[in-house]
Design brief:
Protein name: Dihydrolipoamide dehydrogenase/glutathione reductase (NADPH)
Shape: globular
Cofactor: FAD
Helix content: 25-40%
Bound molecules: flavin-adenine dinucleotide, nicotinamide-adenine-dinucleotide
Keywords: FAD, Flavoprotein, NAD, Nucleotide-binding
Family: Belongs to the class-I pyridine nucleotide-disulfide oxidoreductase family.
Pfam family, one: Pyr_redox_dim
Length: 469
């Protein structure tokens, strides 16, 4: 392409939000240019869920290998060849990039893709500049720039890596200070603990995974401790980091008492910020909100009439499926001016730690605050498939509205929790009464049977007697 280009729609960033936006805009007939700083796929493909899931698979396989002897299969101790594992992760990332980035569809729809374009920026409301010397004049712009990790505001923070550095190590670190126990921190801690690293997980708040149901936080902390992770909730305040021969030292204080912790590697995952630094949003009249994310309305329109935003950069639910839906919606509104809105009927969230955890709907505390509910909890230890597979740890908590009998929430810890949550999500989205759910003869023996048992439990609590009418 030439260095000067005109477009109906310019999409900035080619993560899940940008890919979806560009495809939709082009399919609606707009001349669309997709400009991205690095490779198509964005953070999601290169540093987020894809490598995480590949590493989690390695951790799972190691764990499975330890169980082989119980089934009479003796292969000796597993030995980890870390460079080969990293090679496999790179292979997976490349395979996903080749097969799963909708390149054929984008090409067929006529999207002009500009990869490795550096940081694109507005020079005026309708002009975008990127490397090397690209100048785009666009009628509409969709900002899909994603996010970046928050940096600890303390001396020595440059000694602390992000999740990106955690996946880039060339040998298994002997020890790790993992700072922040949200979804990312829990994931990094879980993977490295399984690979043999001595992990200390520092959470400033009173519990890990603070956005999960309290029982999920508690059981996950117990499981992490059982796996050898030193979990420190409410540990105090970090004062500084220092370089030491063995790696890095963290100095922190609680109630006036100063303590230190040392490890070969320190990684922080203390929150995710909008990646807007280089965009020069002011030149386009695009406002950010008090939290620094691009301010959008329900139609994903920013404060500038012709600029839309989608995905993590807007700071709402920061997940791939939401980024994809956002991109579609923003492009629809940008091209057609329809003013369409989208409100997902359910938002399943889950993570690939060991054990997995997942949620759909409000926590028990939130649900009880808002209405009368019954809460039914079943344990994996009482369900046939987890017993067969030797995976008895975990629970499934189902929350049902007492008045309508509708399934409104489910919280799960245990093997395949994320998959089980998808079934619960469909029931929640359908506002399905629990007596209808229990009529579904779920396949046996499956992990989803734990959800079936929880539904039966809830129905009993509600006094539903004639299940089979
Ligand atoms: C460790 C980790 C694990 C995760 N696991 C999961 C998971 O299991 N499931 C899930 O659903 N979500 C997961 N997420 C969240 C998920 O990755 C994000 O919600 C998703 O990537 C957001 O997509 P996006 O398109 O908004 O942004 P991104 O994927 O971040 O893509 C944005 C793109 O824009 C580019 N860009 C930024 N600024 C500019 C600019 N000025 N000019 C040009 N290009 C620019 C960036 O380089 C990037 O390529 C995880 C996140 C992390 C960090
Ligand atoms: N499997 C998944 O779906 C998945 C995985 C990773 C990330 N994500 C997405 O990325 C988003 C960001 O995740 P995240 O984990 O990076 O951030 P987060 O905001 O979810 O969690 C950050 C954690 O760090 C803690 N913290 C903050 N300051 C601290 C300090 N100084 N010392 C110690 N702890 C501190 C917070 O209390 C919080 O628990 C998530 O909300 C999620 O949407 C999803």
């Amino acid at each position: 392409m030439t260095s000067e280009e005109n477009a109906d729609v310019c999409v900035l960033g080619a993560g899940p939000a940008g890919l979806s936006a560009a495809l939709r805009a082009a399919r609606l007939g707009a001349r669309t240019v997709l400009v991205t700083r690095d490779a198509v796929g964005g953070m999601a493909a290169a540093e987020g869920p894809v490598p995480v899931r590949a590493l989690a698979q390695a951790a799972r396989l190691r764990r499975e290998a330890r169980h082989l002897h119980r089934y009479g299969i003796d292969v000796g101790d597993s030995v980890l060849d870390f460079p080969r594992l990293l090679g496999r992760v790179r292979e997976v990332v490349a395979e996903v990039a080749e097969h799963s980035m909708m390149r054929a569809e984008l090409a067929e729809a006529g999207v002009i893709i500009v990869e490795h374009a550096g940081t694109a920026r507005f020079t005026d409301p309708h002009t975008i500049e990127a490397e090397p010397g690209l100048r785009l004049h666009c009628d509409k712009v969709i900002v899909c720039a994603g996010g970046t990790n928050r940096v600890l505001p303390v001396p020595g923070a440059e000694l602390v890596g992000s999740q990106r550095d955690a996946w880039a190590v060339t040998s298994v670190p002997e020890s790790l200070l993992m700072i922040g126990a949200g979804a990312t921190g829990a994931q990094v801690a879980s993977v490295f603990a399984e690979l043999g690293t001595r992990v200390t997980l520092f959470e400033a708040g009173p519990r890990i995974l603070a956005t999960e149901d309290e029982d999920v936080s508690r059981v996950m902390a117990e499981a992490f401790r059982a796996a050898g992770i030193d979990v420190r909730e409410g540990f105090g305040r970090i004062e500084r980091f220092e370089k030491v021969p063995a790696g890095v030292r963290m100095v922190y204080a609680k109630d006036g008492v100063v303590e230190t912790a040392e490890a070969s590697l320190a990684v922080a995952a203390i929150g995710w910020l909008a990646d807007t630094a280089g965009l020069n949003l002011g030149a386009a009249g695009v406002d950010t909100n008090a939290r620094g994310y691009v301010q959008v309305d329900a139609e994903l329109r920013t404060s500038a009439e012709h600029v839309f935003a989608a995905g993590d950069v807007t700071g709402r639910l920061m997940l791939v499926p939401h980024a994809v839906q956002d991109g579609y919606l923003a492009a629809t509104n940008a091209v057609t001016g329809r003013g369409a809105r989208l409100s997902p009927p359910a938002n399943p969230i889950g993570s690939f730690t060991d054990p997995e955890y997942a949620q759909i709907g409000p926590t028990e505390a939130q649900a009880r605050h808002d209405r009368d509910v019954v809460v039914a909890t079943e344990h994996f230890a009482d369900v046939v498939r987890p017993i067969i597979d030797g995976r008895p740890a975990g629970f499934c908590k189902l929350i049902v509205d007492t008045t309508t009998h509708q399934m409104i929430a489910c919280h799960i810890v245990g093997e395949r929790a994320v998959e089980i949550a998808q079934v619960a999500a469909v029931a929640v989205a359908a506002a399905m009464p629990v007596e209808q759910f229990i009529r579904i003869p779920l396949s046996f023996p499956t992990y989803t049977n734990v959800l079936g048992r929880a539904a039966l439990n809830a129905a009993r609590q509600l006094g539903v007697s004639d299940f089979w009418d």
